[in-house]
Amino acid sequence: MLYLYALAAAAASVAFVVWRMRAPADLRLNRRYLARYLNDSAGRGPSKIQLTRVPAWLPAAELDELVYYHVQAQFADGSQQEATVQVVYPLESLQREREQKQKPSMAEDFSPVQNPVGLSGQRTPADEANKFKEDPLRELTEERKLIEQKTAQFDREVAELRRINSQSDLFPHLIAYDRAKHIAVLGSVGVRRLDMGMNEGKREECKQLLPSFLASLAAFHALGDELALNLPEKGAHSEQIIRGQITEALRALSLGGVLATTPPLAEVIAATSPIWTAGAAYLGPRLSDASPRGLFVHEGQVRPLNYGRLRRDITLLDVIELLCDPAMPLSPEEELSLIKYYLAARFPGAALQDVARQDASDAVRQEAVDAMRQDAALLEVLRLGIYYRLVLAKHLAEYFSVLKRSPHEKRASLSIPYWTDEAESRNFAALRFYLSQDSNLTSLLQALPR
Predict the structure, then answer these.
(1) Containing structural domain, residue 381
(2) Among 154, 187, 220, residue at a domain's last position
(3) pTM of structure
(4) Tens of pLDDT along 309-334?
(5) Cis peptide before 125 (omega within 30 of 0)
(6) Residue 224 shares a structural domain with residue 158
């Protein structure tokens, strides 16, 4: 009986995977289900819905495990509503792992004697029967544990989003959370990523939205440890990490002939020491992805979508990750202007205080103090920008080197969006501009190509 139960469960699991692969959207997200959360003024559910998969940029391990849908709902009274629905499929990673285990190795592919099932790698019914004889419920137990782990993780992330929503308007608000189905219904972020808008005919429109987003991001960062206290620090930037990445980048650029031979490389590396601790005084909640690929433009607002994987780190890096990305065709002067806008929102001077309760001298003193904080933070941001652009320069150089060595027919599959010759030139121009603002880094400026 246990064998039959396990066999049936395995068949059901395979059927679910096939359905997931062929279905354009999750069929559970129908009108009846969404009527629980989306209603018109009379309390009625939608009369018509349209689902579109959101082009979320996610790590490879989460591509099929975490899916977002844009919902457009129409109601009988003529009104419309939009929402973003997040669905977690907790068994996707396990299914991929099992599929990989069933694939034959290269040696097996070329040896039919060692691989009786041939090149396909498919298991025979006898193989499956022997597997269940060993432990018919092993895979079911494995699935149950994984579902419990993923559910607990989803619970934590949703709880964090609720806490963020109560203190900040940066993320879309949580409408509902269906724990049993691993579904979260959120305020809509639309379907257009910022990187798409900046490079597909909406550049000026997107540029105009950046200041308001940076103001929201500054308010989010200003929450500091109040919000970041329980966030993990895994992967956070330390002096050792920043120093190591800068050193590796400069050595690679030197070997590639990008850097000038004078001053000596060791002197250039040592001269970067002011960058190693940049931003350390500005720890707090940091986005999981602040790049243009992690942000969406919708109804005059820019919002991040993935509220999971927040961490405690150098908050100023979010600004750099956004503005210095190759997908953001901004001039160095535009970047500097937006950085200053962010800092003015982060440290707004006397507006932080109740000026009506201060005398004039107190207000002036407060403005002076916060002006100094803005200047000090500006230097920190610029140094983090230099760090980011040095590492980016290394990756761009390696990327173009690989492309040049690759056969022409394979280059399309290796290409990375927005990583172009123009992006590389823009990166070095911005790097020189940032360095020109810092008198302590002249050795590095002298080593860069003109």
Answers:
(1) 196-447
(2) 187
(3) 0.81
(4) 899 999 999 999 999 999 999 999 99
(5) no
(6) no
